[in-house]
User: Fold this.
Amino acid sequence: MNTIAGNLQLVRDRIATACAASGREMSEVALLAVSKTFGNEVVVQAVAAGQHAFGENYIQEGVDKIVALRALLASAALEWHCIGPVQSNKTRQVAEHFDWVHSVDRLKIAQRLSDQRAPTAPPLQVCLQVNVDGGPTKAGVGPSELLALAQAVAQLPRLRLRGLMCIPDAVEGFAAQCEVFSRARGCWSDLRAQGFALDTLSMGMTEDLEAAIASGSTLVRVGRAVFGERSPKAVATP
Ligand SMILES: *Cc1c(COP(=O)(O)O)cnc(C)c1O
Assistant:
């Protein structure tokens, strides 16, 4: 087994253990492998080890990878998720290449994504990024503005609203992590109670996936535990 295959198995084991600890089925929690800063060859290794959903933060880097790997692995049915900030001037690339966007926090961006999604492509699958732990400068829609944004996004013809995403600042300890994640879970449950057919709660990364799963995550976004440490130089390139 190569390193990536071994790492993926360790992450799947962590997910299984966390699911068992909270009485959930492993099939309720998807694994998104976050390949940002890593080259095509490690994605190929992950695909060979059974992984098919990948997350990218930086739009241009992601698009380059998507184009190259869709050509190289044409039969692999890969799924690409944009999990990084999306500025207006990048929406076209996202709409044309990605399958999912987790980081929608403004109606203007959602509108552009819908307008720019090709009529022949499946709808773009969308999560709203919710700011559950920060001040007004942090990315994500505030919980008090979430309902209005969800209502507006749900009307857009070329998007399909699937759920919420959050990226809380790192906090120490399982209980404190769960406390923050359960705020996102609360927002998600409220929207479902309002009639939104949401099935995705995107939360949990390498350091805190256990707490996220205990708090109701349906998708964990894991980078370092799958691909190893990122080089600081590569991380700095947006
Ligand atoms: C980088 C990143 C991840 C993965 O983080 P790791 O700590 O490497 O698991 C998940 N989500 C987002 C939004 C990220 O930017």
Q: What stands out?
A: The pocket of pyridoxal-5'-phosphate is lined by residues 34, 36, 57, 83, 167, 205-207, 221-225 (CB under 6 Å).
